[in-house]
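Exercise 7. Given the encoded structure of a 173-residue chain, write a plausible sequence.
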């Protein structure tokens, strides 16, 4: 009888700890969630301690690399840091707006943002054979290997539970 009194609370405690560890959103991840669909699928890349990341793509007209740099804030929002590119034109500005600065060095334009913080952004996956990559901690993930061309995805930084991660698609490789 005494044995049951000891084992039962231990079992309930273990079950409680297991449930909390499965459903508590403790894993910080970059997420790409299908946009404008009834059954959105989420793709994710696990975050480590590094707060900066980049998105690299080939401009559809100039066919040159564009690199957008970002930082994750303490509130899990996204701070735009800069955009680097070789050509000026469609989508690639030749001058700075208020709160921005533009410099040119060795033929490379760098547009720097002073204080541009957003909670998320929508990323369209074009149906062209041009690079679209996510860079984090020295690794590059080809987004077109995971995300569907012609669809849009909401990108954000979130904390997710183990259960949510199991329902999503891990893009860490």
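Solution.
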């Amino acid at each position: 009888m005494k044995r049951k009194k000891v084992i039962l609370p231990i079992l309930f405690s273990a079950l409680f700890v297991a449930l909390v560890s499965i459903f508590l959103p403790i894993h910080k991840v970059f997420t790409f969630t299908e946009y404008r669909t009834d059954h959105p699928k989420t793709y994710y890349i696990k975050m480590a301690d590094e707060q900066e990341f980049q998105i690299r793509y080939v401009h559809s007209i100039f066919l040159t690399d564009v690199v957008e740099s970002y930082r994750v804030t303490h509130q899990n929002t996204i701070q735009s840091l800069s955009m680097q590119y070789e050509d000026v034109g469609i989508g690639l500005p030749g001058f700075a707006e208020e709160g921005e600065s533009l410099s040119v060095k060795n033929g490379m334009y760098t547009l720097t943002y002073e204080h541009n913080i957003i909670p998320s952004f929508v990323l369209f996956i074009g149906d062209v054979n041009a690079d679209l990559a996510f860079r984090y901690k020295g690794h590059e993930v080809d987004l077109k290997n995971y995300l569907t061309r012609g669809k849009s995805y909401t990108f954000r930084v979130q904390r997710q539970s183990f259960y949510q991660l199991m329902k999503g698609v891990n893009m860490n490789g």
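Remark. The radius of gyration is 21 Å. Students should compare their own answers with the one above.
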